[in-house]
Specification:
The structure holds two protein chains of two kinds. Helix content of chain A is 49%, strand content 14%. By secondary structure, chain A is α+β, with helices and mostly antiparallel strands. In chain A, the strands form two sheets. In chain A, strands 4-5-6-8-7 form a five-stranded antiparallel β-sheet. The longest helix of chain A is centred in the middle third of the chain and has 27 residues. In chain B, strands 1-2-3-5-6-7-8-9-10-11-12-13 form a twelve-stranded antiparallel beta barrel. The chains are: A alpha+beta, B mainly beta. Chains A and B meet through helix 1, helix 2 and helix 10 of A and strand 3, helix 3, strand 11 and helix 4 of B.
Chain lengths: 392, 297
C-alpha cells in the first residue's frame, strides 16, 4: 500500500511539478518529523541544497532546572573571576556580585535554546512560558542555522584570536543570520514572503527589548555583549540579504565587520579605527593583569543605567571610536585598579561622556581632547596619586 | 539525468549491442522485428566517448544560482564481453548578486569500472566492479564552503543519483549493473549500482552504503521518447533514506555506414530533465536538464 502511495505521489509530482516533500509547519519540535521539516526549511531559505550527509543534529529538550545544573557543573568550583572587581568598579556588576553566578542566572532566564559546538547538538530549554508551536519552531530553526553554519565552516572564524570587539562583530553576523533565516522560516509557515514583513520595525522592537534587558541585568556588560548581537546583527544581515541575497550574507562571513561600531552603523559601513596602543602607567605597587577592548557594548553597559537615559546612551555610544581597558592588581592580589581609555568621534562627545550622570561615582574621569580616561580602584586612595596622562 | 547512468544507456541500447560481422537481426528475434527498419540493422559499438552537460539555475532573493556540470565518459572493449569504463565530471557553481559575485569550479570523483556483458536475442545485461577515486576535495575556509555547496548542488539536482561521482572526500566501491529488454515497441531499461562510500577526510566519519536504481521506458524508434524514474536508497542514513527523482527523456539516434566488419558508428543525442521529489530535495525545488552526446567508435 505504501509503495502504491509513493508511486502515485511520484507521478503526481512529475505531472504537476510540485514536491511531495514535507512542508514546514508550526510543529512539536520534539518529534523527528518536525525537526526534519524545519531543518529542510532552514536549508531552503539559506539557499543550501540538502545532501546525503546533511542530517539534522541531535536535539533534546530540558527544563530550566536541568539547564542550571548543567551550567553549574560546567563552571565547576573555580574561585571568583578577576573580572568581578573590574566590573564592580565600572558599575557593571553590583557590589559583591559575581560574574559566574550572574551569568548562570542570566542564561537560565533568557536562553531559549543553544547549539553546542563541542557535541554538535541542539538543546531546547523548556521555560514553560509558551505553548505556541510557531515560537518554538522558530527557535529550533534559529539553532538549526547555527548547525548549518558549523557544517559549512562559517563558525570557524570565531576560533581566531581576535579582540572582544571583533568577536562581538563576528558573533553578530552568525547570530544575525540565524535571526534572519529563522524568521524567514516562520514567515514561510505563516504563508508570507520576505517583502511582506516589516523588518525595520521588527529589529527596532527587538533592540528596545534588548536594551531593557541590559538595564535590568545585574551584569550589564555581559548582557550587552550577549544580547545586542541579535538586533544589531539581524539588521546588518537582513540589509545584506535584501540587496544581494544569500551570496551577500556569505560575503559577510568571509569579510566580517571589524567592530561592534561597524555592526551598529549598518551594512556597507566599515569605520576606520586607529589602534589604541597608548598604555597608561600602572599605579606603584601594582602589576598589569591584562587588557581588553569592550567596544560599543561596553559603552552601552557603562551608560545604560536607566530607561530615561537610553536614547542619550545609545547616541553617545555611536560616537565610540576605540577603547582599551587595562587592569592591574596589587602584588598581594587583594586590590584591583582599572584604567579604561575611550576614544570618541569628537571632543564634544568626550566631554559629554565625562559629564554623563550615569557614570559610577567611584570613577575618576580625565578628558584629553576626544579621549576620556576613566580610572577606578578598589583602594580609592591610589586615585589621587595615580599619574595618568593623555595619549594625544 | 545522472551522468554515470547515461554511460550505461549508451552501452545497452539499442539491442543487439555487440558489434559483429553480420549487422542483420537474428532471425526470429522479437526485438529485431519490433524495431524500426534500420534501427535493428546496426550494432552499437562497445567503444564510445560521451560528453554531457547538466544545468540548473534559479533566482533566490536578489541573487541567481547557476550550476553547470560537464562530464566525460569513455568505454573500451578489452576482451570479448569485457569492457572498461570511466567517467569524470566537474561542477561550476556561480552565485551572482549585486554586491557579491562568486563562482567556483571543482572536479568530481573519477569512476572506473570493469564490466561483463551478457546478450540474448531480446535481452542485454551487464554487471561489473569499480571504484570512484576521491578527487572531490573541498579546501578549508570560505572556498571550502563554496566547494561543499557546489557538490551539494550537483548531487541534489540529480536527485542524488550516481552520488559517488560528487561525494566530497569519499572513496567508493561500486558494483554497477544494467538490464535492458524490449516489449510492445518499448525499450525497458533498468540500471544502477550498489555502492559503498568511505570517508577519506573532512568532518564526515560515517561509511555509507547505497542502492542506486533507475527505471527507464522509451519508444523503440529513432527518436526515442520516454521517462525515467530514479531512486537512491541509503540505508545508512539516519532519516529520509529514500530519494526519488523523475523526468522525461528525448533521445535521437543516428548511425553511419557499416565498416569492413559490418559495425557502424553511431551518434546519440539525449536530452533529459530530472525533478527530485524526495522530502529534503523537493523542499528546495531542485531540477536539472542534461544534454548528452555520445559517439560510438
Amino acid at each position: 500500500m505504501r509503495a502504491a502511495v509513493a508511486l502515485a505521489c511520484a507521478l503526481a509530482c512529475i505531472l504537476v511539478g510540485e514536491g511531495c516533500g514535507r512542508e514546514v509547519t508550526a510543529c512539536d519540535i520534539r518529534t523527528a518529523d518536525c525537526q526534519d521539516a524545519t531543518f529542510y526549511a532552514v536549508l531552503a531559505v539559506r539557499n543550501e541544497p540538502w545532501d546525503a550527509w546533511a542530517v539534522p543534529p541531535p536535539m533534546r529538550v530540558i527544563s530550566q532546572d536541568e539547564f542550571r545544573d548543567e551550567l553549574l557543573a560546567s563552571v565547576g568550583p573555580s574561585g571568583p573571576s578577576p573580572w568581578d572587581p573590574v566590573l564592580q568598579l565600572l558599575g557593571m556588576l553590583p557590589a559583591g556580585g559575581s560574574l559566574a553566578s550572574s551569568s548562570i542566572d542570566e542564561q537560565v532566564q533568557n536562553i531559549a535554546a543553544y547549539y553546542a559546538l563541542e557535541t554538535r547538538d541542539i538543546t531546547i530549554i523548556d521555560h514553560g512560558t509558551t505553548d505556541d508551536l510557531i515560537d518554538t519552531t522558530q527557535t529550533l530553526a534559529h539553532e538549526l542555522v547555527h548547525a548549518v553554519q558549523d557544517r559549512y565552516g562559517s563558525l570557524a572564524v570565531q576560533d581566531k584570536n581576535t579582540s572582544d570587539d571583533e568577536m562581538f562583530a563576528r558573533h553578530a553576523v552568525s547570530e544575525g543570520e540565524a535571526t534572519l533565516y529563522s524568521r524567514l522560516v516562520r514567515l514561510q509557515i505563516e504563508g508570507r514572503g520576505f517583502t511582506e514583513f516589516n523588518w525595520e520595525g521588527y529589529y527596532d522592537g527587538m533592540l528596545d527589548t534588548v536594551l531593557t534587558m541590559v538595564i535590568e541585568s545585574p551584569s550589564r556588560l555581559q548582557a550587552a555583549l550577549q544580547y545586542l548581537i541579535y538586533p544589531l546583527g539581524g539588521k546588518l544581515v537582513t540589509d545584506a540579504y535584501t540587496g544581494g541575497g544569500t551570496p551577500a550574507v556569505a560575503a559577510l562571513f568571509a569579510s566580517p565587520p571589524n567592530s561592534a561600531l561597524a555592526v551598529m552603523q549598518g551594512y556597507g559601513h566599515e569605520p576606520h579605527l586607529a589602534a589604541m596602543n597608548c598604555e597608561p602607567p600602572i599605579p606603584a605597587g601594582y602589576d598589569a593583569l591584562g587588557m581588553a577592548s569592550l567596544g560599543v557594548p561596553g559603552m552601552i553597559a557603562l551608560l545604560t543605567t536607566s530607561y530615561g537615559g537610553l536614547i542619550d546612551a545609545w547616541s553617545l555610544a555611536a560616537a565610540w571610536r576605540g577603547d582599551a581597558l587595562y587592569v592591574a592588581q596589587s602584588s598581594d592580589g587583594a586590590q584591583t585598579a582599572v584604567a579604561w581609555r575611550l576614544r570618541l568621534e569628537s571632543a564634544a562627545a568626550a566631554d559629554a561622556l565625562a559629564g554623563a550622570a550615569s557614570l559610577p561615582p567611584g570613577l575618576a574621569t580625565h578628558v584629553f581632547g576626544n579621549e576620556v580616561l576613566l580610572i577606578g580602584a578598589t583602594d580609592p586612595a591610589i586615585l589621587t596619586t595615580w599619574d595618568v596622562q593623555g595619549c594625544q | 539525468m545522472p551522468t554515470y547512468l547515461a554511460a550505461l544507456l549508451l552501452l545497452t541500447s539499442p539491442l543487439p549491442l555487440r558489434p559483429g560481422p553480420d549487422p542483420a537481426p537474428a532471425p526470429g528475434s522479437a526485438l529485431a522485428t519490433a524495431l524500426e527498419p534500420g534501427l535493428a540493422s546496426y550494432a552499437a559499438p562497445s567503444d564510445y566517448v560521451r560528453l554531457s552537460l547538466s544545468g540548473y539555475t534559479a533566482a533566490h532573493q536578489a541573487s541567481r544560482t547557476t550550476v553547470l556540470a560537464p562530464a566525460l565518459a569513455m568505454q573500451h572493449e578489452v576482451a570479448p564481453h569485457w569492457v572498461v569504463a570511466g567517467e569524470w565530471g566537474a561542477v561550476r557553481l556561480s552565485e551572482s548578486s549585486q554586491p557579491a559575485d562568486t563562482s567556483i569550479t571543482k572536479l568530481g570523483n573519477l569512476a572506473l569500472s570493469v564490466r561483463s556483458l551478457f546478450d540474448a536475442p531480446s535481452l542485454h545485461a551487464e554487471i561489473g566492479m569499480g571504484v570512484a577515486l576521491p578527487f572531490a576535495r573541498p579546501a578549508d575556509g570560505e572556498s571550502g564552503r563554496q566547494a561543499a555547496r557546489a557538490y551539494s548542488f550537483v548531487s541534489g539536482v540529480h536527485g542524488l543519483s550516481a552520488l559517488w561521482l560528487w561525494a566530497p572526500n569519499r572513496f567508493s566501491v561500486l558494483t554497477p549493473f544494467a538490464l535492458e529488454a524490449m516489449t510492445w515497441r518499448l525499450l525497458l531499461h533498468v540500471d544502477g549500482a550498489l555502492a559503498l562510500l568511505v570517508p577519506t577526510g573532512g568532518q564526515e566519519r560515517r561509511n555509507d552504503a547505497l542502492l542506486d536504481l533507475g527505471v527507464e521506458v522509451k519508444t523503440a524508434t529513432f527518436v526515442q521518447i520516454g521517462g525515467r524514474l530514479e531512486s537512491v536508497f541509503i540505508p545508512t542514513q539516519p532519516r529520509d533514506r529514500l530519494q526519488l527523482a523523475g523526468g522525461p527523456i528525448l533521445e535521437v539516434v543516428t548511425h553511419g555506414e557499416p565498416d569492413a566488419t559490418g559495425a557502424r558508428s553511431n551518434v546519440r543525442l539525449r536530452l533529459e530533465a530530472a525533478f527530485p521529489f524526495g522530502a529534503p530535495l523537493s523542499s528546495f525545488r531542485l531540477w536539472s536538464v542534461t544534454l548528452g552526446c555520445a559517439v560510438g567508435i
